[in-house]
Amino acid sequence: MADAESQTLETMEPNPMWDEESYEDAVETLSEDGLVFRVWGGDWCGDCRGQLPDFGAALDAAGVPEENVHHYPVEKVDDGSKVGPKVEEYGIELIPTVVVERDGEEVARFVEEEASPIAVYLADRLES
């Protein structure tokens, strides 16, 4: 099995239909040098399949270097809890979860579902 840092989530493949022009502000904020994005999800998860392709497209549009985007595929066990790389370390209970770090410190977190898309939600937190 590949180590956690080299695994990928198919759901993070950028959505080719995503409209970058509608999200210029979010893309600009996410393009800040040095931000690290840690993404927990599962290709089996409906919420992940619905949200992560657009987030992948936003990171692509922002020019975030591949080495600054870490994928952590998780599985659901019988009791509904999640298992996978760094799940306990980061307190992951719901997916998708995206943690943004700056200089090794968590500065924003998206968990499962919010009123705005992942890129917009995180950009709003990074700007405040």
Please give a structural write-up.
The structure is a single chain. The termini are far apart. The protein has one domain (4-127): Glutaredoxin, CATH 3.40.30.10. It has helices spanning 24-30, 46-61, 87-90, 118-127, and strands at 36-41, 69-73, 75-76, 82-83, 97-102, 105-111. The strands form 2 sheets. It has a 4-stranded mixed beta sheet, covered by helices on one side. The chain has a two-stranded antiparallel ribbon with strand order 3-4. Helix 1 packs across helix 4. The chain has 4 helices and 6 strands. With 128 residues, the chain is of the alpha+beta class. It is globular, with a radius of gyration of 14 Å. Residues 1-10 have a biased composition (Polar residues).
Strand content: 15-25%
- Name the strands of the widest sheet in spatial order: 2-1-5-6
Q: How far apart are the termini?
A: 39 Å
| CATH structural fold name | Glutaredoxin
Q: Per the principal axes of the C-alpha atoms, what is the gross shape?
A: globular
What share of residues is helical?
A: 25-40%
Average pLDDT metric: 93
Order of helices and strands: HEHEEEHEEH
Q: Which oligomeric state applies?
A: single chain
Which structural class matches the secondary elements?
A: alpha+beta
Q: Segments where pLDDT lies below 50 for 5+ residues?
A: 1-5
Rg over C-alpha atoms, rounded to the nearest angstrom:
14 Å
Question: How many distinct domains?
Answer: 1
Count of runs of 4 or more consecutive helical residues? 4
**CATH H level, superfamily name:** Glutaredoxin
Largest sheet: 4 strands, mixed
Q: How many beta-strand segments?
A: 6
Report the top-level CATH class: Alpha Beta
CATH architecture: 3-Layer(aba) Sandwich
Protein name: Thioredoxin
Pfam family, one: Thioredoxin
Keywords: Isomerase
GO molecular function, one term: isomerase activity
